[in-house]
Backbone:
């Protein structure tokens, strides 16, 4: 089974992808991991990606497509895969379509208010790396690490301004993808607001 997972930051698609990949015996490919691995392994593409990121540039579609399709050609993808974070643009989706057909694009839907609540509630201990959430996993004492007692912080990415930026970028890039897969009859919408077990059950049901 060949799947694409779409969804805004905080919708839990990475978690769902891991669970479904384990349940189905297929491979979970996240673009972030793909970039990190290529850079760590110092492959030719990895070095190109590294040079671009270090200059603060955006990795071009052509390079992302080469990395992703290279990974998809590996033997362990034979039984199927879940792509998480790729394709991100229509150009990438068109390139993927030429490379292989997918069975479905699962779109995890979450309201902007809920995305903000989930991401802005995250807290990190800068000392030991423990993570908390003010609603879902609150520390025993507000803003204090349960493990080491240091003051908790909000990561830069989880500040309200940054969240709104990430969401704006996501919406701009992904809306064309939703139409792309909708037109091909491959789009499956899932409500990502309920508890993870319920969302996971819904995903299994639609596939
Ligand atoms: Zn700590």
Residues:
């Amino acid at each position: 089974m060949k799947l694409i997972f779409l969804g805004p930051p905080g919708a839990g698609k990475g978690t769902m992808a891991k669970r479904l990949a384990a349940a189905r015996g297929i491979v979970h490919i996240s673009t972030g991991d793909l970039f990190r691995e290529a850079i760590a392994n110092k492959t030719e593409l990895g070095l190109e990606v590294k040079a671009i990121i270090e200059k603060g540039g955006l990795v071009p579609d052509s390079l992302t497509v080469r990395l992703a399709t290279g990974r998809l050609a590996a033997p362990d993808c034979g039984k199927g895969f879940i792509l998480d974070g790729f394709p991100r643009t229509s150009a990438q989706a068109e390139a993927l379509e030429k490379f292989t057909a997918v069975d479905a694009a699962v779109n995890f839907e979450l309201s902007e208010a809920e995305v903000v609540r989930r991401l802005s509630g995250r807290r990190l201990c800068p000392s030991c790396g423990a993570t908390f959430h003010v609603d879902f996993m609150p520390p025993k004492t507000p803003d204090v690490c349960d493990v080491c007692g240091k003051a908790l912080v909000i990561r830069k990415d989880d500040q309200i301004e940054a969240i709104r930026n990430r969401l704006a970028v996501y919406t701009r890039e992904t809306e064309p993808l939703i139409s792309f897969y909708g037109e091909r009859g491959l789009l499956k919408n899932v409500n990502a607001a309920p508890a993870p077990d319920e969302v996971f059950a819904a995903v299994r049901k639609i596939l």
